[in-house]
Amino acid sequence: MQPNRFSVRPVHGRILIRILLACLPGLASAASFSLSPGSISNSYPGNITLQIAGLTNGETVLVERFLDLNANGVLDAGEPLVESFRLTDGQVTAIGGVRNANIPGDDDLTANSQITAAFNFSRGPEFTRASGSQIFRVSSPGGRFSPLQQVLSITQASYAQQIIGTVSNSTSVLPYSLAAVLVQVGSDSQFVAGTVADVSGNFSLGVPGGTYQVIAFQPGYVGSFATSPMVTVSGANTNVGVLLSPAAYTLSGSVTEAASGSGVPGSQFFVTSGNNEYCVTFSDALGNFSASVIPGQWKLEPSDSSAAIGGYFRPNNKVKATVTTANVSGVSVSVTRGTAMIYGTVKDSLNHPFPGVRLSCGDNANLYQSAAYTDNSGNYFLAVTNGTWYLGGSGSVSGLPNGYILQQAQVFLADGQAVLTNLVAVQATAYLAGRAVDSNGNPIGGGTMLGFLNNNNNAADVPIANDGTFAVPVWGGAWTLSLENQAAASHNVVSPQLSFVVTDGVSVSNINFVAPISTRSISGWVRNGTNGALSGLNVFAGAMINGTSYNAGATTDTGGNYSLPVLAGTWNVGVDSQGLQQLGYGQAANQNANTSSGNQTVNFLVGGPAVGTLFFRHSLGVVGEFGAASTPAINYPVTIKNFRAIFHVFNDPTPPTADTVLFTGPPGSGLTNTPADLNFGAVQDGTNVYYFSPPVRNPNTAMGGSWTVFYRSNPNNLNVQDPQAFSRIAVPVPTVTVTGGVLRSLNWTYRDQSGSPIFGTPLFIRTNRVDLFDQNGNQIYADVFPASFSYSFPPSGQYPWSDLSLVRVSYYDDMTNQYFVGFSESYPSLSGAGIVSGHTYQFQLNGPPTQNYTVQFRTNLSLGAWATLLITNSPTSPIAIIDPAATNGSRFYRVLVGP
What we know:
Elements: H1 9-23, E1 32-36, E2 39-41, E3 47-53, E4 60-68, E5 81-88, E6 94-95, E7 98-99, E8 115-120, E9 132-139, E10 148-155, E11 162-168, E12 178-185, E13 188-196, E14 202-206, E15 210-217, E16 221-224, E17 230-233, E18 238-243, E19 245-246, E20 249-257, E21 268-273, E22 277-282, E23 288-293, E24 296-302, H2 304-309, E25 312-315, E26 319-323, E27 328-337, E28 340-348, E29 358-363, E30 368-373, E31 379-384, E32 387-391, E33 397-398, E34 404-406, E35 409-413, E36 418-420, E37 423-427, E38 430-438, E39 448-453, E40 459-463, E41 469-474, E42 477-483, H3 485-490, E43 495-502, E44 508-515, E45 520-528, E46 538-545, E47 548-555, E48 561-566, E49 570-575, H4 577-582, E50 591-594, E51 600-601, E52 604-606, E53 612-625, E54 633-634, E55 642-649, E56 662-664, E57 674-675, E58 683-685, E59 688-692, E60 705-711, E61 714-720, E62 731-739, E63 742-751, E64 757-758, E65 765-774, E66 779-786, E67 790-792, E68 804-813, E69 818-824, E70 829-837, E71 840-846, E72 853-858, E73 867-872, E74 879-883, E75 892-897
Parallel strand pairs: 2-10, 11-18, 20-27, 28-36, 28-37, 38-44, 45-51, 45-52, 53-69
Antiparallel strand pairs: 1-3, 3-8, 4-5, 4-9, 6-7, 9-10, 11-14, 12-13, 12-15, 15-17, 16-19, 16-22, 20-23, 21-22, 21-24, 24-26, 25-27, 25-30, 28-31, 29-30, 29-32, 29-33, 32-35, 34-37, 38-41, 39-40, 39-42, 42-43, 43-47, 45-48, 46-47, 46-49, 49-50, 53-54, 53-55, 55-59, 56-57, 56-60, 58-59, 60-61, ...
């Protein structure tokens, strides 16, 4: 039976006509842009909605937001770009199927030639919330339409008092300067309100009653926190003057995305020096910035709100640069796009939401920080990466009503995963208050005091004042107070752990928190079996000395080294087990160190020499058939048929045979001392070698956990992340372009396993792969490339469409696991029938390999049911089918795809 073919000429012709029409001048539809509301106050809690129409389906536009400093409705030179993002018709940003609402997207979720995008005004970067005039500009990255503009007018909320002032240098006023007021929250200063001064440098800011610091900014000048006015207002206006000084030099560079190196436009930075000077800068459309400075060491601190809108998180360590007698250029600031997400709500115990709460979280190694604000319903979205993250605690949030403590949470995530974490804010009924000093009576100021509710995940952390005083909000229960490790180390003290039983409504005051000065140290390193340093791991120690519990902690440096300040005594020292697990190692046994006679060294050697890594291949099988169409017909739902475990060996030029390599997975994995598949053997790529387990169909997906691969008779124990295969099923549905009977290109869109569209490329997909197989099941072409929507075959490649049996469009995720998805060129066929001998009948099954086929027979086409001859899944094609018991005069055969 000859399979049906299809003619691509009419289809191709229609596509060509559309392209030509779209290129004809004057035929492109006119784009339009509206902004709602067009006027708001700076306390507006709601959304701003952008409506963009007249687009082509799936079109991307660039949205830029500028401060219109002179309020003339025109973009003038020097007016800063304060926000920049792209919108694509029908697409939003999601991780693990959960939308990150911090990032604007097309809210109608449909590629319908228009975009409706809403974002919360109060969660924007600081100076986007300043009163004055702003200009939104929408443009086409491809130049399809002329840029469109809308003006947003921001007025000031009405308060009983205002701060009125003038921005000037030593000789004249500074027109159109930015002015702002800050409030102290713990050890941090936070933006409250801002505005644009008029042409005479005058400004007024309505604020609630309280104490504020007033600052100002203009390019070419620097300010000083030492001379910026501090004012307390209550019911009456206050007049101030803000003095800026001419800058002598510039500090310039770029802010880029860590993975791609591309510039990040519209990023806001506070730039501060060790001498209390400050300025503000914004990155331009290419991600470049230039800050006005004077000699000194300067620190660049990116706005968390700017990062959140782009789906980024940032390093904990701020970029620093020293300016002496010349301009400094080439400064690089890097941000990282989140590959995982923590999301949820912040509410009280009665389920009342808390809007406007700023949450921040840090990773286990204290390398990164992510921050976001809750919306009006208390929802938050934090962009993170794989690993363990901590969030909550009173010191890591702001915007909660006074006296509330936020529940702490510890969250472990893999890339591509979104974890729901709802947080409960509990109202404090009392305080643990006192003063922290060292054993000489000197105050321990500038650090953090931690309060832990015993046997609970609730905790509070508050800044310690310069005189050592603290007040930790608590409620009824058993609490423990302890210094944060960095605070203890910076003062060379050892923190006690003091316990208190609190009764609701009764504070404990006058606590004398004495942290002894360290007299000993425990130091050492953490390394793996190949002597590789393990950095960013938490090392801890605890001891009971004279009836008091003490603790110390540190993080290993880039050389894997650590040092703990301790006292004379017997200490139990350990390494954070979760941190080791994230690096692929098992737990390291704790060790005791007796420092009674002096300093001690405790080293940790974890794991053995790693010779390879393990990942998985999940096969969805042949999920569709082209037939006479350019896009295959697919039978949904699509699911994973089987998986293989793949052991990747590094640097072995003479690998052993496959039958000596044994796979053992967690209980229920389907692999227990199972030899590698001999059909694959040892697949070599230089000195890299790959071993494939046999396909496992029960279970049909791999599981994370403890795996062991015996290689050269040595066990390689590997702690493998859960691949989350079911949540990562994505069907890349291809459309082929065939010219002159030759396959020229593919383009594809993604659908989920039920056939519903997935807008854009799922974030977990990092790489695509295209394979072609001929009618005999031989692979004739393969290529792997960064994640894309399309692929063009090289001009020299001649792959007649009629000669192909299978097109495979696959993807690799961010955990290096593979997902193979096949599409047959035509239905399977039977051919080559003949009698071998006696009652033995033989024929060929032609179809894509590795697909399940059911071959059935019957003796009469009009009577009786079809009987199953065999079910086969052959790695090659064609497949020889033999029926040894054809006793009747004639038989009819058919082949079904599946089960």
